[in-house]
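Lab notebook, bench 4. Continuing the backlog of folding jobs that were queued last week. Each job is logged with the same field layout so the records can be merged later without manual cleanup. Today's entry covers DUF3243 domain-containing protein, a 86-residue chain. Filled in by technician R.K.

JOB TYPE: sequence-to-structure
TARGET: DUF3243 domain-containing protein
LENGTH: 86
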Amino acid sequence: MSVLDNFDSWKDFLGDRLHQAQGKGMENSTVSGIAYEIGDYLATKVDAKNTEEKILRDLWTVASQDEKQAIANMMVKLVQDNGHTR
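JOB STATUS: finished
OUTPUT FIELD FOLLOWS
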């Protein structure tokens, strides 16, 4: 099963990557920029695997650049307490 098949698994995966990046000293602005790039890639190149991803993709599609950055920032906040490495 792929981490994209289940939204909770996806959040844990993202949480693990976030904690790894923070542990290596990556700044929040850099994390935010990467989250934006990942969001854009997923929205345009990857089929949504579940309802939550479909909603995020649809929101991303209609959002302005500033709104997309806000969505990316919210995703970072959402996964801060997820993952196995905290």
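OBSERVATION: The two ends are 24 Å apart (CA to CA).
SIGNED: R.K.
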